[in-house]
Amino acid sequence: MLIEAAGLCAGYGDARVLHGVDLSVGEGEIVALLGRNGMGKTTTVKALMGLLPAMAGRIHMGGTDVTALPAHRRARLGLGLVPEGRRVFPTLTVEENLRATAVPGGRWSLPDVYALFPRLAERRSNFGNQLSGGEQQMLAIGRALLTDPRVLILDEATEGLAPVIRREIWATLARLKDEGQAILLADSRLQAILALADRAVILTKGEIAWTGATAALQADAELQRRHLAV
Ligand SMILES: Nc1ncnc2c1ncn2[C@@H]1O[C@H](COP(=O)(O)OP(=O)(O)OP(=O)(O)O)[C@@H](O)[C@H]1O
Boundaries of each ABC transporter domain copy (predicted)? Predict the structure, then answer.
């Protein structure tokens, strides 16, 4: 497995939000982390990235135990995050935003990112705060790819975006998958992940309520009603 969490517990201050989450992403896989708002998806993402400490449990990347490693070390080992809310640098240009995270010798170059998102090429001299939500998301994905991630983690990848832009983002993720990119997609909406994800993990109140093949989830309307915003 490229990344594997076992019995992961995390939270804020004394408040435990995750109560023993098991989750893994293998080579070339897209795994969806689902659940209604507030169920712990973002907390799981932060704990995987090392932005929140694990209160219990272990996280491995390949054979390496990364539980105690800080976020930048995990990033270097191959975790690339597209955070909720995108977090592009507002006063840097598109190009400067991209250069800020580029890792020398990675699989992705600036021209590769521009080829993936031609709109970013057109707007390379615009500042982060001049971009539409969709363009910001493209920039956030481009930035994460330039860190040469073995696993790309997206938190609410299309939240607040127009349907046409949403479809563009999903199509891009499908292309990345075809190229073998492993992806963890945290999302509250099932529709978003049906065509993309191989497996799904559903969180309820910081615990895993269900895990299995996306096709099985798609076929089970009752399961969807119980746990998801559809
Ligand atoms: N900084 C924080 N301090 C304290 N509690 C928090 C903090 N961030 C989140 N929580 C709590 O942790 C729980 C899980 O939140 P989390 O953001 O992980 O959920 P989520 O499934 O990602 O939902 P959303 O899609 O709304 O972000 C919620 O009860 C939330 O109130």
Answer: 3-230
